[in-house]
Specification:
Protein name: Cation:proton antiporter
Number of helices: 4
Order of helices and strands: HHHH
Family: Belongs to the CPA3 antiporters (TC 2.A.63) subunit C family.
Shape: elongated
Subcellular location: Cell membrane
Oligomer: single chain
Pfam family, one: Oxidored_q2
InterPro entries: CPA3_antiporter_subunitC, NUOK/Mnh_C1-like
Length: 112
């Protein structure tokens, strides 16, 4: 139960970075922390203590088996988050080229 609480704390740190920071780069880092905390949470949902992988259990009956579905979902999520992060970074670079700053409050005032 403690490790789920640590995932929640990690998620809250990322959420704080997204909601309270004014620098676009810090917001992107906060989004990355949120994504990784959710991936960790999904992997922990399928984890079993002293569990075995389903591949090893072809012939024998194993009661304590690790669920492979959350791991597959996390692999898909990693690929999608990589694409989203690349897109957000490219948008941040364009904003910096256009406005010359990463600060959101200055960008809102410039009206360009």
């Amino acid at each position: 139960m403690m490790i789920y609480l640590l995932c929640l704390i990690l998620f809250c740190i990322g959420l704080y970075g997204v909601l309270r920071k004014r620098n676009i780069v810090k917001i992107i880092v906060g989004l990355g922390i949120i994504e990784y905390s959710m991936n960790l949470f999904f992997v922990l949902l399928g984890y079993r203590t002293h569990g075995r992988s389903p591949i090893e259990a072809r012939t024998e009956n194993v009661l304590n088996m690790v669920d492979p579905l959350p791991q597959a979902v996390v692999l898909t999520s990693i690929v999608i988050s990589l694409a989203v992060t690349a897109l957000v970074i490219s948008i941040a670079i364009r904003i910096y080229e256009y406005y010359g700053t990463f600060d959101i409050t200055k960008i809102k005032r410039l009206k360009g």
